[in-house]
Design brief:
Two copies of one chain form a homodimer. Chain A is α+β, with helices and mostly antiparallel strands. Helices cover about 50% and strands about 15% of the residues of chain A. The structure holds a DNA duplex.
Chain lengths: ~190, ~190
DNA sequence: AATCTAATTAGTTATTTATCGAATTAGAGG
DNA sequence: CCTCTAATTCGATAAATAACTAATTAGATT
């Protein structure tokens, strides 16, 4: 789910009256006047809230004579409720271990600059893997792009580039760089 | 989770900047200046957002020298994300069948008033069960409270009260009413 | 003590929004 | 055509809030 859809879903739930509406509709379908009565608000307020809930895809309605019955879209609610988890997960290639980050972070300044490449092979590998966050898979990168992005971390981009290739984090062909999938990375040393 | 906690959780996620912060922190802990830099906002804005996220229990912080590193409380996020599902579920004792509701609803006006108690025993039982939504288990109720709440449905609260007792939906002792758990209810007739 | 940096507070502004009363629209039924 | 009811729209108001600048606090280092 894209950011703005995700945010407007949570906006829909960021009001006590709307949450109570959903709880009522989970019991049974209700029409506007009944909701207004049970919640102690006026009909225009219900209209206001229902349009937000409808926009968020959480309720649907069925007309019956002059009356409009709203019902909860429970499967949509379930799906959207967990979307935030997928969203933060999708963006986090470092999820495997926060201990790893505890080691890696000492080689970066608070501004995020790399102080120096670790001498220890294991730590060096971790730092290189960390740098790969700049190059998500599924895309290819020119050498110029690689240089620009590595420059943010350290002056000596040539060494960084070479190390990334050596450990098979990336693959180079005719000046085009391509991130390897984790299966092709070199093993984490000792 | 109670309503206001639930709402303030969703308020915390109802802003694109805060969702982006969570996504960044899912990668690795970061301090305020780094967040400000990556998001293109000023430090006071970060302070503002972090206090909301902290209040919602989604981030924690660790001081190190002069710098404060924030990290995501992922398990809290997971727990709270699904809380809305439990909330709407908990309030819906009618979930077992919407066919049941199709029968029951004919005895209520669109405003939610009970037209009359059904003569058929099975339908009468269903209507009484439906009325029990007013009296969640885990609490006790005075007769006055019972009367007030039943009054919304029908004038003749005495009959309703008596029927609820007869069918063992509630238990009365010394003028205090207590809802029975479903195991103690009388069997649904027919 | 003086200084540097990160974070916070205070105060301001512009935007959003929850709610209401009054007026209007949309159907249904006489 | 008239009337009734449910729902919506319109306009107004009050409250919440996201963002900034400027000033201040809190620790750490010199």
């Amino acid at each position: 789910m894209q950011l703005d859809r995700l945010v407007s879903f949570h906006k829909a739930l960021a009001d006590p009256t709307r949450v109570r509406i959903l709880a009522l509709l989970a019991r049974s379908p209700l029409h506007g006047q009944a909701l207004a009565g049970k919640l102690g608000v006026k009909p225009p307020t219900i209209t206001h809230h229902m349009s937000k809930l409808r926009e968020a895809g959480l309720v649907k309605e069925k007309r019956e004579k002059n009356t409009i019955y709203f019902h909860l879209e429970k499967t949509a609610l379930q799906r959207k409720a967990v979307a935030i988890l997928e969203y933060v997960e999708r963006e986090s290639p470092m999820k495997e271990s926060s201990q790893e980050w505890e080691i890696v972070r000492h080689f970066f300044t608070p501004q995020g600059q790399l102080k120096h490449l670790p001498a220890q092979r294991k730590k060096r590998w971790m730092v290189l893997k960390y740098l790969m966050r700049e190059f998500p898979p599924g895309e290819t990168y020119t050498e110029q792009t690689i240089n620009e992005r590595l420059k943010k971390y350290h002056e000596d981009v040539a060494t960084l580039r070479r190390e990334l290739i050596i450990h098979h984090f990336m693959y180079r062909e005719k000046g085009i760089y391509q991130p390897n999938p984790p299966e092709l990375w070199s093993e984490m040393p000792g």
